[in-house]
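Lab notebook, design round three. We kept the backbone fixed and only want residue identities now. Task for the bench partner: fill in a sequence for the structure below.
Input structure tokens:
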């Protein structure tokens, strides 16, 4: 019987895949890819006292191998001397990377699931019925309802398992509800990040992506947070991070073979908000101008609003004069009879088609500017 709670989730971060696996019991775990083994370790010590294992594998290696093995030993008793564990077990998974010269790439964004699983998965399946299997999945924040219960993180892996089966890449961005609750400070242990940071870049085939994290949606001193957040300094760090990318642009968004540039941010920081959500105008204006002038993204994907909107450069709600298209979604209604319509993407012939659909039908399509 497998010790794995769900199939692995293969997250793209920088130039590595962070393969993350939930286990049902204390387990020592590693990944075999080709002739190499990569371990879930902390300074040479294999981790077992954890619910989510994280193993980093170089992208080039896994892309080339096209498969990997999850290897593990369930721990019976971990002791200072002569730890007892069960026999080694392995489970093999195929992997299908986004190819550099792929003529058509399909992706799907799920966000604002708030612990829903069946509804967003059904939307993806409906999209695939019309367009074909997706090549990668985007999880853009608020997948758990909040971080007040550790089991809420299971939603991330249940959705990933049902859609990807551990066989295609996932790009993950944090949402503002993820910051709420006693386990929020442990989120980095259960989700992908780069050196502990929830903002980073990555590349899948000819697609380059910048993942940004706005943190919470109100000022740090809002009584709702009761002195538990410091998001303004966190956003200021990201300003410097975006600036740093411009110094190495030839290795980032201007790298050879890049045809599409994405920005992924749970909160659509380019638009206007009413109080108390009208925050960080100077920071968000600077982010937007850096993107306009330097990165020149073809599309920004956002969520948070629980409604579907397309903001072009001439949209009335273009607060900071962004020159790129912003797609906001999904359209979601929570409650006794939940409704979910997500965003599918088709990258083809230098254009990005944006598709809104629910579990029953394709609702509308748009083309990014």
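Proposed sequence:
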């Amino acid at each position: 019987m497998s010790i794995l709670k769900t199939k692995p989730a293969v997250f793209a971060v920088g130039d590595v895949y962070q393969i993350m696996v939930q286990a049902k019991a204390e387990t020592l775990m590693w990944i075999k890819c080709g002739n190499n083994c990569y371990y879930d370790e902390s300074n040479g010590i294999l981790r077992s006292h954890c619910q989510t294992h994280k193993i980093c594998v170089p992208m080039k290696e896994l892309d080339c191998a096209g498969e990997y093995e999850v290897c593990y030993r369930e721990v019976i008793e971990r002791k200072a001397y002569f730890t007892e564990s069960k026999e080694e077990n392995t489970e093999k998974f195929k992997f299908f990377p986004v190819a550099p010269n792929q003529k058509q790439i399909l992706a799907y964004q799920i966000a604002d699931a708030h612990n829903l699983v069946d509804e967003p998965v059904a939307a993806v399946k409906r999209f695939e019925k019309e367009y074909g299997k997706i090549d990668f999945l985007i999880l853009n924040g608020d997948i758990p309802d909040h971080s007040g219960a550790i089991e809420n993180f299971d939603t991330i892996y249940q959705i990933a398992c049902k859609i990807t089966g551990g066989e295609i890449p996932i790009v993950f961005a944090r949402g503002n509800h993820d910051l709420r609750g006693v386990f929020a400070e442990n989120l980095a242990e259960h989700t992908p990040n780069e050196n502990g940071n929830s903002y980073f870049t990555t590349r899948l085939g000819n697609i380059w992506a910048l993942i940004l994290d706005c943190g919470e949606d109100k000022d740090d001193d809002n009584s709702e947070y009761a002195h538990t957040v410091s998001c303004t300094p966190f956003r200021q760090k990201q300003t410097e991070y975006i600036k740093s990318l411009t110094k190495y642009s030839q290795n980032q968004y201007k790298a050879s073979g890049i045809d599409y540039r994405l920005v992924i941010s749970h909160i659509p920081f380019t638009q206007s908000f009413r109080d108390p959500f009208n925050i960080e105008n100077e920071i968000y204006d600077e982010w937007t101008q850096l993107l306009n002038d330097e990165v020149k993204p073809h599309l920004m994907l956002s969520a948070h609003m629980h409604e579907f909107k397309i903001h072009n450069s001439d949209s009335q709600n273009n607060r900071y004069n962004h020159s790129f298209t912003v797609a906001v979604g999904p359209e979601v209604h929570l409650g006794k009879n939940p409704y979910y319509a997500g965003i599918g993407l088709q990258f083809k012939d230098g254009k990005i088609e944006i598709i809104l659909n629910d579990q029953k039908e394709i609702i509308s399509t748009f083309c990014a500017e």
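Keep this in mind before ordering anything: The longest strand covers residues 67-77.
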